[in-house]
Amino acid sequence: MPTDTDSKKIEELLTRGVEEVIDRESLKKKLQSGKKLRIKFGVDPTSPDLHVGHAVPLRKLRQFQDAGHQVILLIGDYTAMVGDPSGRNETRPMLAREDVEKNMKTYIEQATRILKMDDVELRYNSEWYEDKGWNFIMSLTGKITVARVLDRDDFQKRLKEGSDIQMQEILYPLMQGYDSVELKADVEIGGTDQKFNMLMGRKLQKKYNEPEQDVITIPLLVGLDGEKKMSKSYGNYIALTDSVEEMFGKIMSIPDHLIIKYFELATATSMEKIEEIKHRMENGENPRDLKLELAGAVVEIYYGVKAATEAKENFLQMFQKKEVPDDIAELKLAGASIIDVLVEAKFVTSKTDARRNIEQKGVKLNGAVVSDLAQTVKSGDIIQKGKRFFIKIK
Mean pLDDT in each 10-residue stretch from start to end of the chain (394 residues)? Predict the structure, then answer.
C-alpha cells in the first residue's frame, strides 16, 4: 500500500491532537516524500485496563496506519517490570512477570478495537533484553551521563524533596530509548509525559550511528472531573471495557468546556465537522445536544453505530421523557465518593448498604450504571438509586 502524501492529510497528522513535533520540518519532508515510515508506540502493561485517555495515542497511530505507514506496537513486557518514573514523585513498584503477562493480553485485546492488528508489527522488548548481559549494560550506560538523566523534571523535584531515586529508574529512559535503536523507528508517538524518554531515543540512535527518530507528543486527556488527567487512580476515567450505557452516560457528564477537546482527541469526527460544532457552541447551542453527538461518536468507535444509536435513545428516554423528576433535591458534595453521596442522601442505611446496591447494579450516575466503588461525583451530576430516588450534586 503506497503512503498518502496528500498535503491536507499530512497537516492533520502533524496537528490534530498533537502537542509538539520534534523535528516538525524533518517529519513533514519524510511524509511528503512518500517513504513508508516506521511509527513506534510503546506501552508498559502495568495495569489490566485501558481507558479513553490511553486511546488518544492509539488513535494517532491509526491515522498513520490509514496513511499507509508501518505501525509498531511495542509491548514493554521487560520495562514494565522496572517501572517508568515519568510523572511520579515516588518509585513505582516492580511488577512480577505473571502480572505483566496477564495485563499484556488485555492491552492487545483492547488495542484491536482501534488498530488494524493484521497490519501492526507487534513486538516485545523482552526480545532483546532477555539475552543482554553486563557488557551491554556497560556499553549502553557509557553513552549517556548521569547528569543528563537526572536533568529530567521528575528527578529534579524528588532530589529537592530528598526522595529516593532507584538505580533502575535511572536506567529506564535508556531502556526505552534503546527500544528505538532495536526497532529502527522513524517516528515515536507518546504522551507529553514521555517526552524525555522519547528524546533519549533520538540521542541513543545518534550514538549508534542511526538516523534520529522524530517525536510526536500527544496531550494527556483531561478526565471527567474537568481538572486532572484521566486516570483510574482519580476515578475520572472512561474504560474501554465500560458498557455502552456507562460510556455514553460518562461522556454526557463531562464539563462543557471539554466538549471540543474530546471531539478532537477521542473521536473520528472530521476537523471540518469539529469546527462547525465549535461555531454552534459559540452561537449558544445547548451543550447537552452537542454532548449527545459526542457520546454517540465515542461509543460508535468501540461498539458500532447501532449501539451508539440505542444508547442515545435510552438516554433521551430517561432524561427527556420525564423519567427523571423536575424537582430533584440537591446536595453540596462535589468531589465526594458516590458511596458518601448515597449515605448522605439517606438512600442507604450504611456504606456497606451503598456498596451492596452498587454491586447489584442498582445505582446510576447520569443514566449510566455505576460499577466502580471508588467513583467520585462533580457538580451537575445526577445520581439515581432504583427507580424513585434521585439527587443532584451542586
Answer: 89 93 94 96 80 92 95 90 56 68 83 92 92 89 85 81 81 92 96 91 95 96 88 82 87 90 93 94 90 95 93 79 67 86 87 87 82 82 82 84
| Residue showing cell 502480572 | 99
What domains are there in the chain, each with its CATH number? 7-218 (3.40.50.620), 222-323 (1.10.240.10), 324-394 (3.10.290.10)
Q: Which pTM was predicted?
A: 0.77
Grid coordinates representing 262? 474530546
